[in-house]
Write a structure and sequence with these properties.
This protein has 489 residues and is an alpha+beta fold.
């Protein structure tokens, strides 16, 4: 989480496919490519800096250059343009598994999604799918339907006015916050997703890649989603109510493999592994890091713990905290030195147009030596009464952070341990926080999945993370000379 000025994102989100590979199936047709119009170029150029801000900025260096090259190749295969200079391909500094493209020749993929892949054909498959959405003009067809509903952005200020303003708090409580990185966006129809899959398979064939990579990368995402659900204490098969209109990932994987048929092609595994070696994985310390239930921000030098049974998702503007009994986020806003006014202004931002949410009182306190203030309000929503709490902390004369929590009436106390856990960290502790990176190593004689997984830079699920990262199973046999990926400090 970084501290940035919050802006409305409805138009931005509608333009982006944001997570179009989000494990959501579909049905298809083929379509001829259309050239990039001047209008599309202008639209994309306007959205590009906003998207970079939304997703933590662009990664630079050799890994980004490698991904850019593959992305431009894929774009040429689509027939949108024969000029590589017409395309802007960006490796995003985000720990969320995500990829998207927008009109105007702009293609994006996050570093953690790239790290999950195991060969160049899978990278080309993801980017091909996203280019397919642009070729088929899906964002244009989707926009009118999407504007009829509140759109939850891909991370960031998910409780801010843009989300709550169109059905008050009830919609957020009913839907819940982010349900894992693969379920962040469900904005394409089934037929559009399948059409993009099918176009992507065709582009893989044109590029000489193994077209089965479309199915294998979808399987990798499914495996990652299941692991993430276990780590967070969610049932992997428990899809949120608002996602039930989309079929499960298994039919989509089978359909992609069927579309590829018996065709084969290059995978360029060694080239891919060399291209991504050393890439940052998981949270960027500049945006804070999540370790289990603890979030720490080394730049602002604070830390807090999520309540037992809750899990966190770190975004560029906020940290989302989600559990069965409620949802919350930690973020920041402009601070003029008065905590009471700050708390009331946050409540004002939660209200929709023509609505007000006013705390009964604003109480002052200190938490582990940090000046703090909080207020609560009970709100009528479509799913019943909801308790909203704003708990703010003054970290300096010009900087404040705050939690916004939502829970069913009477259940707000489940967040009390989190409020009390906010604390400052020392400069020494802050300096000790290092990023995780992807390391490609060569298997030696005697190495096993168990021995290599022990080197993973995590305190839990080391073997499971290792297997998913490398597309292996617990019975997989490693051979000397084989290259595998590790996540290390």
């Amino acid at each position: 989480m970084t501290v940035q000025k919050m802006t409305g994102r409805e138009t931005l989100v509608l333009m982006a496919s944001a997570g179009a590979l989000a494990l959501l199936p579909t049905v298809a047709s083929a379509q001829n490519a259309q050239s990039i119009s001047q209008s599309d170029k202008e639209q994309g150029a306007k959205a590009h800096p906003q998207l970079l801000e939304e997703f933590g900025g662009a990664v630079s260096g050799p890994q980004a250059a490698y991904v850019e090259g593959i992305g431009k190749d894929v774009a040429i295969y689509s027939g949108l343009s024969n000029a590589r200079s017409d395309f802007t391909v960006t490796l995003l500094n985000s720990p969320v598994n995500n990829a998207f493209a927008i009109p105007g020749g702009y293609i994006y993929v996050t570093r953690d999604l790239v790290g999950l892949m195991n060969n160049e054909a899978e990278l080309a498959g993801v980017l091909s799918h996203e280019v397919g959405h642009v070729v088929a003009r899906h964002s244009n067809k989707r926009q009118s339907a999407a504007t009829r509903n509140t759109v939850i952005g891909v991370l960031g200020s998910v409780l801010a006015g843009a989300v709550l303003g169109n059905n008050a708090i009830g919609g957020v409580v009913q839907k819940g916050l982010l349900q894992g990185s693969q379920l962040l966006t469900l904005k394409y129809s089934r037929s559009q997703e399948t059409e993009a899959d099918n176009l992507g398979v065709e582009y893989l064939k044109r590029g000489g890649y193994d077209p089965r990579a479309m199915g294998t990368v979808l399987q990798a995402l499914a495996n990652e989603n299941a692991l993430e659900a276990r780590i967070q204490g969610r049932a992997a098969t428990k899809v949120p109510e608002w996602a039930l209109t989309h079929p499960s990932d298994a039919p989509r994987i089978k359909a992609a493999l069927a579309r590829a048929g018996s065709a084969t092609g290059k995978t360029n595994r060694d080239r891919f592994l060399a291209g991504v070696n050393g890439m940052m994985m998981d949270d960027d310390p500049k945006q804070g890091i999540i370790e289990g239930r603890r979030f720490t921000h080394p730049d602002f030098r604070f830390s807090f713990d999520a309540p037992q049974g809750f899990y966190m998702t770190n975004g560029t503007r906020a940290v989302a905290i989600t559990g069965q009994s409620g949802q919350a986020e930690l973020t920041s806003a402009a601070y003029g030195g008065n905590l009471d006014n700050y708390v009331r202004s946050v409540f004002s931002g939660l209200a929709g147009q023509g609505q007000t949410i006013d705390p009964r009182t604003v109480q002052r306190t200190t938490v582990n030596g940090i000046p703090a203030a909080y207020g609560a309000a009970r709100v009528n929503s479509s799913s019943g009464q909801v308790d909203a709490v704003v708990f703010a902390y003054e970290l300096s004369n010009s900087q404040a952070f705050h939690f916004v929590t939502l829970a069913k009436a009477g259940a707000a106390q489940s967040f009390d341990p989190m409020f009390a856990s906010m604390r400052r960290i020392s400069a020494t502790d802050a300096a000790a926080i290092k990023p995780r990176r992807l390391s490609v190593v060569t298997v030696r004689s005697g190495d096993t999945v168990q021995s290599l997984s022990a080197r993973m830079a995590y305190t839990d699920y080391k073997l499971d993370r290792f297997l998913v990262l490398n597309g292996l199973t617990s019975t997989s046999k490693l051979t000397p000379g084989q290259k595998i990926k590790l996540v290390v400090y």
